[in-house]
Amino acid sequence: MVEQDTPIDAPSEFNVDVILKKFAKIFNTPSAPLEIPESQLRKLCMATREVIMSQPALPELSAPVNICGDLHGQFEDFIEQIKIVGTPPEQNYLFLGDYVDRGKRSLETICLLFAFKVKHPEKIFLLRGNHECASINRIYGFYDECSVATTSRFGKPSPTCLTVYR
Hints:
Elements: E1 2-3, H1 16-25, E2 36-37, H2 38-54, E3 66-68, H3 75-85, E4 93-95, H4 106-119, E5 124-126, H5 134-140, H6 142-149
Parallel strand pairs: 1-2, 3-4, 4-5
């Protein structure tokens, strides 16, 4: 999922549209690999955190809203759901948490949710479930998935996505 950036200190601009275009390329083949540089992943997480922190903890939503829960890293199923229902901004979404763990592609699942949130902050709302917690992530697999996918050149894990909900 995560590709290493070319020089480690090279500045790179963040553009959520670039990340969404990478997702669009695999939209019809969701089992295809997705490569996002670690620096972009970090910036996506920080941008998501800023958006979430700027919004009220209890969002006021207008109907119609698609309510979704327990994705649990089932990326292919998530893509199918989006194909059937539609994507933001055409559709409003409320996700009830538990985006990660158990499934094989939690990192892709949470990154697509984060990209949608950054691009369309008033069309997608992400509530925190019990799996958006470091102690649960360590038990059910997301921590390990992040550590393997984002191991830096120095061999130190970098579980970036875990910091968004702190």
